[in-house]
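User: quick one, sequence for these C-alpha cells?
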C-alpha cells in the first residue's frame, strides 16, 4: 500500500504518528493509498522548520523571490498534465477539468510574480521641514493554509504564491482525501530554487488543524471549506491572536429572466451545476426562474442533463466523474430523495447510476428538482453534489429578496438581455461575486475572491490585493537627518508639522 507522507524541510517524512486514513480511487471504489495523519509533535516540527527558514527568506531580495516564482510557474506549466492526472485519480473529476483547475491556480502564481510592484510602499518628501515619511510592508512569519478536497491544487495556489512572494514561510494542511498532489507541488518548489523549509506540507485531520490554530509561532491562517468549520477556524484562530481569513460554504443562485437566451442559459447552468460533480464552492445549486421562463428552462436543462456523460475522470469522453467518497454519494442521494418527499418534482433522477466496468465507483448522475421551496432541505443545506433545484418567482424583486434572505452570499448570476435588470441585480443583491450571463463568476487573480454573510468569516478575502495585505503588515517611518553643524532643537510639546 502506497503511503502519502508529509513534506517538511525539503524532504518527505512519515513524522511521529502511526495513524493513517484511506485514499480512495473514486472511479473504482478501491483504496489506492493511505495518508499519514500528523500529530501535535509533527505540527511543532513543521512550524519550527518554517520559522527557521523565515529568518533567511524574509530577507531575500524581491528580485530573488520573483525569480523563484517565475521558475515554479514554468515547472508547473510544463507538468500540468501530470498534476491534472494525479488530481483526477484521487478526487474523481475529469482530467480536462483538473487541467482547468491548475491553470486558474497558476494565474495567482503569475500575479505573485509581480511582487516587486505589489510591495511598493509610499513616500512623502518634506512632510515637515527636513522630515520625510515613508511606508513599506513586511512579512508576518510562519503562515498556514488549510484547504479542501475539491480543488487540491487551485485553492492552495490562492494562498501560498502570495504568502511566499511576500517573504513568509508556509505550512500547507491539504485535505486527507486527495493529498498526493501537494507533495508533487513541494518537489516543484524545491526544483524552482525555493529554500528548504519555506514550503511545507503537513498531512492530517483535526489534531493537526487544532495544533496549527494554537501554535504560538503561526502568525496567520487561511482556510477554505464548509461554513461550520470556517466559523470554528475563525473563532479559534482569532482567539489565539492570529490573522484569519476563513471562506465558508455556499448556496449559489442563478436568476433566469424570460428575456434571457434560454439555450445559452440552460447550457451554462448544466455545466455550472454538474461540472466536477457539483463539488465546487462556486457551483450553481439553485436556479430561480422569473415568470414563464420556468417551464421552458426546466425542459431545456432536463434534456441537456440527461445527455451528460458520466464516467471515470481518466476517460476523455466523460463530462462528469464520480464524487469523492461513498459517504458523499449516499449523502447527495439522500438530498434528492428528501426533495421529492418534501414536494419537489423530480425532473431528472441521477440516483442508481451504474458505469459499466466501474460498478463499485462513487457515481451519481445529474439530478434536477423543480418547484423547490425555501423550506426544503435540498435548498436550505449545501448539498455539494450534482443536484440543481429550481425555484419559481414572479418578479426580479422577488428573486433578489429570496437570494438576500439566504444565509450564504458566495456567488450568484443573472441571465437576461436587459441591461436595466442586470444593473438593478448587481447593485441590490447581497452577494460577494456576481455574474451577468456568466454562471461561475470566479474573479481573475488580480481581484480578490470571497463572498459575504456565512460564506466569509473575517474581512480579508483571498488572493489579489487582499492577499498581499493579509500576508504583510505595514511600517511607517518618520525620518529626519539634521545637519551636524546645526542640530535641531527638541521640543516638549506634541510634535506638529511646519
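Assistant:
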Amino acid at each position: 500500500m502506497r503511503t502519502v507522507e508529509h513534506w517538511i524541510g525539503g524532504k518527505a517524512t512519515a513524522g511521529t504518528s502511526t495513524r493513517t486514513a484511506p485514499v480512495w480511487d473514486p472511479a473504482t471504489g478501491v483504496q489506492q493509498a493511505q495518508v499519514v495523519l500528523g500529530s501535535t509533535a509533527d505540527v511543532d516540527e513543521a512550524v519550527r522548520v518554517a520559522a527557521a527558514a523565515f529568518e533567511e527568506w524574509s530577507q531575500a531580495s524581491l528580485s530573488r523571490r520573483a525569480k523563484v516564482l517565475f521558475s515554479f510557474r514554468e515547472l508547473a506549466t510544463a507538468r500540468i498534465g501530470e498534476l491534472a492526472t494525479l488530481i483526477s485519480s484521487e478526487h474523481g473529476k475529469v482530467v480536462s477539468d483538473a487541467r482547468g483547475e491548475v491553470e486558474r491556480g497558476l494565474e495567482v502564481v503569475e500575479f505573485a510574480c509581480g511582487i516587486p510592484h505589489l510591495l511598493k510602499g509610499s513616500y512623502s518628501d518634506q512632510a515637515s521641514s527636513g522630515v520625510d515619511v515613508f511606508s513599506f510592508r513586511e512579512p508576518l512569519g510562519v503562515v498556514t493554509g488549510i484547504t479542501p478536497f475539491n480543488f487540491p491544487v487551485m485553492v492552495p495556489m490562492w494562498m501560498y504564491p502570495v504568502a511566499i512572494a511576500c517573504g513568509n514561510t508556509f505550512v500547507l494542511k491539504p485535505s486527507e482525501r486527495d493529498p498526493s498532489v501537494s507533495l508533487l507541488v513541494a518537489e516543484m518548489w524545491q526544483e524552482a530554487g525555493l529554500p528548504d523549509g519555506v514550503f511545507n506540507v503537513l498531512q492530517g485531520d483535526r489534531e493537526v488543524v487544532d495544533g496549527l490554530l494554537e501554535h504560538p509561532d503561526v502568525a496567520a491562517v487561511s482556510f477554505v471549506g464548509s461554513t461550520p468549520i470556517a466559523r470554528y477556524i475563525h473563532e479559534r484562530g482569532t482567539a489565539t491572536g492570529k490573522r484569519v481569513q476563513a471562506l465558508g460554504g455556499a448556496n449559489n443562485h442563478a436568476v433566469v429572466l424570460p428575456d434571457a437566451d434560454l439555450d445559452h442559459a440552460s447550457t451554462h447552468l448544466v455545466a455550472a451545476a454538474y461540472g466536477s460533480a457539483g463539488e465546487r464552492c462556486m457551483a450553481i445549486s439553485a436556479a430561480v426562474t422569473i415568470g414563464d421562463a420556468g417551464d421552458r428552462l426546466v425542459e431545456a436543462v432536463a434534456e441537456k442533463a440527461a445527455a451528460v456523460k458520466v464516467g471515470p475522470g481518466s476517460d476523455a469522453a466523460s463530462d462528469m466523474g464520480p464524487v469523492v467518497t461513498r459517504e458523499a454519494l449516499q449523502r447527495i442521494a439522500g438530498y434528492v430523495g428528501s426533495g421529492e418527499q418534501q414536494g419537489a418534482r423530480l425532473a431528472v433522477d441521477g440516483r442508481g447510476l451504474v458505469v459499466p466496468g466501474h460498478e463499485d465507483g462513487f457515481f451519481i448522475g445529474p439530478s434536477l428538482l423543480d418547484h423547490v421551496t425555501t423550506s426544503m432541505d435540498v435548498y436550505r443545506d449545501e448539498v455539494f453534489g450534482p443536484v440543481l433545484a429550481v425555484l419559481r418567482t414572479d418578479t426580479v424583486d422577488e428573486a433578489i429578496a429570496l437570494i438576500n434572505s439566504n444565509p450564504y452570499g458566495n456567488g450568484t448570476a443573472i441571465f437576461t438581455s436587459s441591461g436595466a435588470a442586470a444593473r438593478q441585480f448587481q447593485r441590490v443583491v447581497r452577494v460577494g461575486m456576481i455574474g451577468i450571463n456568466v454562471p461561475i463568476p470566479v474573479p481573475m487573480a488580480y481581484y480578490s475572491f470571497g463572498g459575504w454573510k456565512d460564506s466569509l468569516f473575517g474581512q480579508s478575502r483571498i488572493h489579489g490585493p487582499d492577499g498581499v495585505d493579509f500576508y504583510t503588515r505595514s511600517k511607517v517611518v518618520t525620518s529626519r537627518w539634521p545637519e551636524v553643524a546645526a542640530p535641531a532643537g527638541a521640543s516638549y510639546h506634541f510634535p506638529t508639522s511646519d
